[in-house]
Design goal:
mainly alpha; 2 helices; 60 residues
């Protein structure tokens, strides 16, 4: 199993952001393809924040 670091997540976020802009330049911002990539980007950003600030995690 690969260890996920803040640096790895930061790199993945940058790549996903580039992908989002590329797809959005070909489709509308509300197209299913763009929305899907945007949701993936949101997930990566959330994981990065929680990794950098574990005390912010919600108690479940």
């Amino acid at each position: 199993m690969a260890v996920i670091t803040a640096e790895n997540l930061h790199h993945a976020i940058e790549q996903k952001r580039d992908e989002l802009y590329e797809i959005a330049s070909q489709h509308s911002w509300t197209s299913p393809e763009v929305v899907h990539i945007s949701q993936e980007l949101d997930t990566l950003i959330t994981r990065h924040v929680l990794l950098k600030h574990p005390e912010e995690q919600l108690i479940r």
